[in-house]
Amino acid sequence: MRRRFRTLMAALCALPLALAAAPSAHAADPTSLTSGFYVDPDSSAKRWVAANPGDGRASAINNSLANTPMARWFGSWSGSIGSATSSFTGAADSRDKLPILVAYNVYNRDYCGGHSAGGASSPSAYASWISQFAGGIGNRPALVILEPDSLGDYGCMNQAQIAERQSMLSGAVSQFSRQAPNTWVYMDAGNPAWTDAATMAKRLHEAGVRQAHGFSLNISNYLTTGENTAYGNAVNRELSARYGYTKPFVVDTSRNGNGSNGQWCNPSGRRIGPATQMGGGAEMLLWIKAPGESDGNCGVGSGSSAGQFLPEVAYKMIYGY
């Protein structure tokens, strides 16, 4: 980082305040160590535009999607995970920008939903994977969204499976605390239409959110920023009343410009939302799910697989039809 010394000194000076508030195990603020969010040069939208320069949709997708900072998702497809996260955060660091990473490889991933089923082969394999994930980031500044849907996806799980998942998530947070001190980790808390605030607060606490920086909302969903902000505040009221602390939260706004029509899997008529930015009623509004990437073989993405880039869906999402 070009500004590493100056910003590091500022972070050190602020250390007593950070410890007094005790919101997480991390004292450093990665947003103060960087000069804005990182635009992924290898996003699905970027790759599609590069491969289809003569397509009539390319200009709109390039201007409205490909050049907006958004998260990169990491899972079994990422190869050597430590090398993958090191390469991504290193590229961002060389530009003095803040990268957003999604860890999406928990054992029994999407166990109840099924559209994105998969993940590590065992809890121990996941522990090794997430340790390497954190180690690859190291001291570089980063934001990490930890395992989307993992705390909402309890509907068909028994208590032993729930406890197993909680242990994996709390272990993951510990790895970031030890190996990635300039990373803010957000445990995913689903969305307002999935689980009531009291239940989600209990799940977050039991999975170790006290040691994380905060929690994330609306990932891969379409609910409005206002609905999510109200829900995040309600979760914090429950955390405060039950456990004596609150947490910052972020909202995925990548596809919530028209709000939800009640469907979550590739619904028609949706629109991109506010671009990645600080504030907006939450700590940050982030593009976490890349617009145009399929939710699975469903809705307007019939015949596609989860994560596949669909240019027509992306194009229509820009204009909201």
Automatic annotation (TrEMBL):
Q: Does the keyword Signal apply?
A: yes
Active-site residues per Swiss-Prot or TrEMBL entry: 149
Enzyme Commission code: 3.2.1.-
Annotated PROSITE patterns: GLYCOSYL_HYDROL_F6_2 (PS00656)
On the tree of life, the source organism's domain of life is Bacteria
Q: Which UniProt keywords apply?
A: Carbohydrate metabolism, Cellulose degradation, Disulfide bond, Glycosidase, Hydrolase, Polysaccharide degradation, Signal
Molecular function terms in GO for this entry?
hydrolase activity
Annotated signal sequence is 1-27
Q: Pfam families attached here?
A: Glyco_hydro_6
Q: Which InterPro entries match?
A: Beta_cellobiohydrolase, Beta_cellobiohydrolase_sf, Glyco_hydro_6_CS
Family listed = Belongs to the glycosyl hydrolase family 6.
Q: What is this protein called?
A: Glucanase
**What organism is this sequence from?**
Streptomyces neyagawaensis
Highest classification ranks of the organism: Bacteria, Bacillati, Actinomycetota, Actinomycetes, Kitasatosporales
